[in-house]
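This protein record is not my work; I was only asked to verify it. Where you disagree with what is written, explain briefly why. This is what I was given:
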Amino acid sequence: MGALTISNLTFREAWRQKIFWMALVLGIAFLILFGIGFHFSLREITQNSREVARGPAALKILTHEVSGLFLILGLFAINFMIVMMSALTSVATISGEISSHTIQTIAAKPIRRWEILIGKLLGQSIMLLVYVVFMAGGLILEVYVMTGYLPPHILAGVALMLLEGLIVFSITFLGGTYVSTLANGVLVFMLYGIAFAGSWVEQIGAALQSETAIQVGIVASLIMPSDAMWRIASDLMQPALVSRIQFPLINLFSKPSPAMIVYAGAYMMVLIALALRQFSKRDL
């Protein structure tokens, strides 16, 4: 019950944070701009394509393939927004309250420390779930209303995007039990930078058939498996046209193994366990 109470308080506090509302407002702005750009781009493509002359069936196929391409590009941007929102809203959850001594108010009550940490993590996760469903679901719904297109494996893809945000949470919560808020922020963004850069190195290495570059990318994914989750999600949700486009942003020259999902889940659980252990021993 203690963890659920802390979870409720954390969710309410996160809901009141200006960072979350700014992310939400900017997310709505992104969906509006995407919808406008997608509408006019799709109209131009379909009007100028030779496929239009082949009949309604060919036009429908073209529309769905182009919709899938734009959807993956839009989800790529949303994925980045999810990571940033996850980091910015959770980076001070533990470290900030420890440095300001507000955590002592909670810790002084008859509640276990693990309940405090798990409750805060659960509250932040609920907020993240709302944001992921709103942004990714909103974009998918927007494309569906305009064209009738739905990507394959929607639930699995969105779940992997959610898992990426939870991985970020596990890092910020562990970092918050050791270092200050500023150092914690530097830590999570540096790790994400390693994962992002490593992903590109791996894709370019695979395109150039460089085994060394591929191994560098794999090591980066093991250090921080966040970007690997997006690559698997995008591979699941992309249509046939995207699979034929040889461009690293939307097509994978080197695909992560499904075992990486298991590794990412274990990675997250280990970091949370380490955070619980450190938080239980730390002098507040």
In short: The first helix runs from residue 2 to 16. The mean pLDDT is 82. Residues 104 and 196 are 37 Å apart (CA to CA). The chain has twelve helices and no strands.
